[in-house]
């Protein structure tokens, strides 16, 4: 695949609508071409901005009260059955609107966090120096973070697995410092992010498995006060396997 073909398929690639073979070709090209990686990052950021702009407005309490006054009927002297039904229906609509507004804000917040994480991953793929500490030895990478982030963490033993630790770097999620680790499985790179649990305001929740977000497979959970986010273009099985290794290592003292 060349840059011209990559540019023509960029939108379809980001929407996850290419065939499995073309997705693999595109992934391989982006990893090896800094110009196309930059285009992917710019397109992801544009999609995130459009999505945020489309969901930015949420009715305020004063606006809701104003509309309620406009549609409300003046009370009659006697409460007829029809009026009671209308009042109950209006109350139901207002409650439902409030719940939809709250759920919408939570979903928007969740998508914003995933978009920011995806941007960090794509930017790393396109960087000439993706990690600040280069080592396959977990006993080298883990101590490097001491004094650079406000927490410690454990790394799994990878001997006998398909995974290789490439290295790590300090990163930020909403101004909160955390660890960004790069693992490799076959020809795929997987980003593992660790932040204090409150960095994402707990909106990410605990996914029961692997989800598809921002054209990537992702898993996330919290353990011992840390938020783990595993994201990459590797298969769902690979994301799940690495997540299991990380989860098991996190439970060790």
Model description:
- There is one protein chain.
- This protein has 253 residues and is an alpha+beta fold.
- The chain has one domain (3-52, 107-250): MucB/RseB, C-terminal domain (Phosphorylase Kinase, domain 1, 2-Layer Sandwich).
- 49% of the residues lie in helices and 20% in strands.
- The protein is built from eight helices and seven strands.
- It has helices at 3-8, 10-14, 20-32, 34-54, 61-71, 81-125, 138-144, 236-250; strands at 133-134, 163-173, 176-185, 188-196, 211-213, 216-223, 226-232.
- Helix 4 packs antiparallel against helix 6 (81-125).
- Residues 96-104 have low confidence and may be disordered.
Q: Report the average pLDDT across residues.
A: 79
Q: Which CATH architecture?
A: 2-Layer Sandwich
Instruction: Output the structural class.
Output: alpha+beta
The end-to-end span amounts to: 47 Å
Major sheet description: 7 strands, antiparallel
CATH class descriptor: Alpha Beta
Number of domains: 1
The name CATH uses for the topology is: Phosphorylase Kinase, domain 1
* Fourth CATH level, the homologous superfamily: MucB/RseB, C-terminal domain
Summarize the helices and strands and which ones pair or pack.
Blueprint (H helix, E strand, L loop, with lengths): L2 H6 L1 H5 L5 H13 L1 H21 L6 H11 L9 H45 L7 E2 L3 H7 L18 E11 L2 E10 L2 E9 L14 E3 L2 E8 L2 E7 L3 H15 L3
Antiparallel strand pairs: 1-2, 2-3, 3-4, 4-7, 5-6, 6-7
Helix pairs in contact: 3-4, 4-6
